[in-house]
Amino acid sequence: MSSHGYPRSLRLLTAGDYRHVFDTAVYKVHGKRLMALATPNSLGHPRLGLIFSKKNVRRAVDRNRLKRLVRESVRLQQHRLPSVDIVVLARRGLHELDNEAVHRQLHGMWRRLDREAHRQPAGRSDVVDPPAQASSGQR
RNA sequence: GGAGUUGGCCAGACAGUCGCCGCUGCCCCGGUCGGUGGAUCGGGGCGGGGGAGGAAAGUCCGGGCUCCAUAGGGCAGAGUGCCAGGUAACGCCUGGGCGGCGCGAGCCGACGGAAAGUGCAGCAGAGAGCAGACCGCCUACGUCUCCCGCGGGAGGCCGGUAAGGGUGAAAGGGUGCGGUAAGAGCGCACCGCGCGCCUGGUAACAGUGCGUGGCACGGUAAACCCCACUCGGAGCAAGACCAAAUAGGAACCCCAUGGCGUGGCCCGCGUCGGGUUCGGGUAGGUUGCUCGAGGAUGACGGUGACGUCGUCCCUAGAGGAAUGGCUGUCCUCGACAGAACCCGGCUUAUCGGCCGACUCCCCCU
Prior knowledge:
Elements: H1 15-24, E1 27-31, E2 34-40, E3 47-51, H2 60-77, E4 84-90, H3 99-119, H4 131-136
Helix pairs in contact: 2-3
The chain binds one RNA strand of 365 nucleotides through residues 3-7, 11-18, 49-51, 59-61, 63-65, 67-69, 71-73, 75-76, 99, 103, 135-136, 139.
């Protein structure tokens, strides 16, 4: 369990998972040309979803590169992150940043997210719903 | 050696480390079946091996595949457009013809029809379509006036003339001689052109070939149009299968002194018909999904595109979407750019490097 792998369980998989994060969105963290929405889950580890639209990042090569960077960052720092579902959104102009800059942005965002999660420990009803059931309730 | 044309190939390399997605070997755990050793499904660990492109792009053509439609034919619409071949097919490729560019190797061309019809052509210009007299040239014919040595001369009228100037993208063959008042295919020679024949060629087409016609039938068909040929529609979010929860439906059975839930049971409380089966079907999952008009190589046929046969090889298959992050070393300091059902093309983007043919120029022998 001390590994730094990136198995399927660390990802948001279904449209329902994404919907849940957007609907609740307890935490909101901004970086340079990046934004992350997050909401607590009861799984004991974070999960990541990515939304990099063609409108904001024009070329497929850049989209692939940037998504890899975000995943890599989450993979390496998964044990320092709180138990939340995160959706990272790209803003326009993100492709102009190089790998090092993106890594720095993400590092800072995770720290802020962690701090926020500790400041307002969401012990309310949000945590109780597992996202799988939340997705079914949205019809 | 320099300049250039053309065909093909490569797409930073290596090492360490941490990951991702298929495949595969062994081991472990769990479910089901079977039953000690097996089968199957799911998960995990440790090994092995594979993992973007020449354009993966634009989605501009052509197919395969899938579903829908379809007796046959026509119209409309769209597309293609020198000829022959190649191909599953094409708007692609090969060879040939014609025209243009280049000293050349080569390159470029929507390259059918304007003697079916309709239409269009700014400005300039006298005139632009069965043409036209602005300048110029001529005044022979007919006629009038004048002069004079009846011949002749000057001028006018009626005119003649497309050789020259000028306009234009384009002015109704060219050169020369004859001819004439001046001219003119008016006549002739040569060149060119049209038509018919002949010859060569599968054909497009070509020919110091033969005959014939004085000779435009102007341009535009990426204007309508005519002619010939081709084309049913939609797309992998195609399509197929499995299928929770909730609501609703159908059939059958049971019972309303009841059934169901709660509970070990009774009372109680809550609730109302209950149970079984079936089909449709949402979320979700599986499949379609990579062995194919496939590559490599050899032989044979063909000018070639390509075809036939033999041998060998298996080379991404994701799906919120893998093919990467970090570190180090080196060099020539790395462009354009990321598969999404699969092929054949075209077009566009692109740092550079390598190899093979060929052309021109210069130098040496």
